[in-house]
Amino acid sequence: MFDIGALELLLIVVVAIIVIGPKDMPAALRVAGRWVGKIRRVSAQFRSGFDAMVREAEMEDMERKWKEQNERIMAETPQGEMRPLPSAENGGSEMQTHAEPAASATAESRAESADVEAAAQVEADTETEQRSLPLNTPAPKD
Predict the structure, then answer these.
(1) What is the average per-residue pLDDT within 63-69?
(2) What is the dihedral of CA 132, 134, 136, 141, to 10 degrees?
(3) If you ran DSSP here, which 8-state letter would residue 141 be given?
(4) Which residues, 6 or more positions from 12, have their beta carbon under 8 angstroms from its beta carbon?
(5) Residues whose CB is less than 8 angstroms from the CB of residue 139 and which lie 6 or more positions away in sequence, other chains included
(6) pTM for this one?
(7) Range with lowest mean pLDDT among 7-11, 22-26, 42-46, 82-86
(8) Cα–Cα distance measured from residue 130 to residue 109, given in angstroms and rounded to the nearest whole number
């Protein structure tokens, strides 16, 4: 940002020591440091606000382009083009006849899996109880 070389920096330090004096130099450097910190915070806040505005403008532009492209695609696509496939219309009745026996088998397997899940839950609850007991306490007997 600033093109300050070593010689210019040395000149500034010498002038500051002569003008301010070595006694008040730490206080002056502290004040200068605070000003630099405030300037950096304000510039970071300005930059983040500017970046947010740019992102919002980009999003609005992308939404506008997407909407235009969607409208163009919808205008190019004929209305009758989005129909179900003919094989799905013919094969649907065949699938229903095969599905009836499977429905009863599915109900039986659901009942069995519910029993297995309940047994697993009881076992998990028992293990959790045993883990939560202090080390010197005996486990309860069922």
Answers:
(1) 94
(2) -30
(3) P
(4) 4
(5) 130, 133
(6) 0.39
(7) 82-86
(8) 32
